[in-house]
């Protein structure tokens, strides 16, 4: 009777290749949705976020060029000082020409240029400014460290 029809019907579904593909696709889709749901629940948990800067609501920003004392590391804005060199206009290293006093007064710059190995090359800070069409958070002009005093 009905049990035999259900068994025949279930065998038909299991051996129909199109139905199997649809079922596998549905299972895969359900796993993806489940993973996304689990991730969003994890992100919404009220755990402490470790950051080097304070976190507050992004509504405190009044415009794209506004500089505020609050930063949301989970937000869309990147710290200006974290941008790669491709988005910056950086000055050349200052040549103090072996004048230790001038370097001490300025706080950065090169006493000498060049060297054959990494250890021989002096590194310094240079003044960099973010290009005007790039949006970022924080001071748009800053000192970038680790620049080699190359020739």
Automatic annotation (TrEMBL):
It comes from the Eukaryota. This is TM2 domain-containing protein CG11103. It comes from Bactrocera dorsalis (Oriental fruit fly). The lineage of its organism: Eukaryota, Metazoa, Ecdysozoa, Arthropoda, Hexapoda.
């Amino acid at each position: 009777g009905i049990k035999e029809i259900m068994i025949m019907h279930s065998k038909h579904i299991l051996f129909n290749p199109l139905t199997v593909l649809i079922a596998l696709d549905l299972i895969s889709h359900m796993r993806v949705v489940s993973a996304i749901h689990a991730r969003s629940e994890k992100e919404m948990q009220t755990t402490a976020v470790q950051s080097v800067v304070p976190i507050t609501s992004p509504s405190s920003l009044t415009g794209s060029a506004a500089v505020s004392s609050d930063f949301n590391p989970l937000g869309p804005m990147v710290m200006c000082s974290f941008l790669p060199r491709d988005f910056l206009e950086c000055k050349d290293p200052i040549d103090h020409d072996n004048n230790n006093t001038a370097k001490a007064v300025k706080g950065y710059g090169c006493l000498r240029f060049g060297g054959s190995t990494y250890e021989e090359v002096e590194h310094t800070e240079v003044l960099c400014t973010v290009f005007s069409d790039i949006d970022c958070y924080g001071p748009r002009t800053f000192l970038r460290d680790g620049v080699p005093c190359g020739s």
